[in-house]
């Protein structure tokens, strides 16, 4: 009888877990576009309880982001020197990523997993770690996951998720990168290549930046890869040009604004910030920092 119960439990567990394992394996087996010309070198890690969504960085500090809280860490000692937390029952729901722009920390925020999807940008003073403003986008192209500033325009990624499809009628293929003018008026939009969307799986793009030379770097939700894309000369599908294996598992990232090639990412499973160096093999270090 005990053997029968054990066999039944084992069969039940396999039935539950096998689809997840199969999905992960299918994502690993998807073909990647890679030239092998980029090198990723992990330098160090440190623990941060806020390491659930992403990171941002300025000249002296790393800002670690979770849904309703921020942690501020010195870059030289990795000491935690500041924090911000939403009040109990407050208006913050799901911060996804952040950038430093004109001396302010801007965090992409959404009401995920609620529908209709609404989005906003939360504005913080990084010196005092206080919330100083919000720019609401209301209902837009999806659920805002990341923003960046490039060549006088805002670029914002609006995600769609498989779990929301019954309510929205849209799967991750509807994820869109939208360009806005400085007043947040839409001026353009692009979607991601089909193979990258397949790697996203049930989720979407969690992090992204556009460097000063116009290169687009993005991450998914959990893939250990940094994808390199460029804007197409024609059409609306971004062009996938290369892939960099990384030790972090997706989520939002940041380039160091003063140390070319230094890359900050997170491991949400262990609540760690990962500090790495990324550069093209055989090439001198170049400025891959996003425009601030």
From TrEMBL:
Signal peptide positions (record): 1-22
Keyword annotations of the record: Signal
Descriptive protein name: Uncharacterized protein
């Amino acid at each position: 009888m005990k053997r029968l119960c054990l066999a039944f439990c084992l069969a039940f567990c396999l039935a539950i877990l096998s689809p997840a394992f199969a999905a992960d394996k299918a994502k690993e087996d998807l073909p990647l576009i890679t030239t092998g010309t980029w090198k990723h070198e992990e330098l160090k890690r440190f623990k941060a309880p806020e390491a659930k969504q992403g990171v941002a960085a300025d000249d002296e500090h790393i800002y670690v982001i979770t849904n309703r809280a921020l942690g501020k860490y010195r870059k030289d000692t990795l000491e935690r020197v500041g924090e911000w937390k939403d009040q109990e029952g407050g208006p913050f729901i799901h911060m996804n990523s952040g950038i430093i722009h004109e001396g302010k920390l801007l965090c992409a925020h959404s009401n995920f997993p609620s529908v209709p999807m609404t989005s906003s940008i939360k504005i913080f003073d990084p010196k005092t770690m206080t919330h100083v403003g919000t720019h609401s986008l209301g209902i837009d192209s999806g659920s805002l996951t990341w923003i960046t500033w490039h060549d006088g325009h805002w670029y914002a990624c609006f995600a769609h998720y498989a779990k929301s499809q019954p309510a929205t009628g849209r799967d991750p293929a509807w994820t869109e990168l939208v360009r806005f003018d400085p007043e947040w008026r839409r001026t353009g939009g692009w979607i991601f290549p089909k193979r990258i969307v397949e790697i996203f799986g049930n989720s979407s793009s969690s992090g992204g930046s556009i460097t000063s030379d116009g290169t687009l770097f993005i991450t998914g939700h959990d893939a250990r890869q940094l994808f390199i894309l460029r804007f197409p000369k024609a059409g609306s599908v971004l062009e996938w040009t290369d892939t960099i294996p990384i030790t972090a598992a997706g989520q939002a990232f940041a380039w160091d604004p003063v140390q070319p090639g230094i890359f900050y990412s997170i491991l949400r499973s262990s609540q760690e910030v990962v500090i790495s160096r990324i550069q093209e093999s055989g090439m001198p270090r170049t400025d891959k920092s996003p425009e601030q």
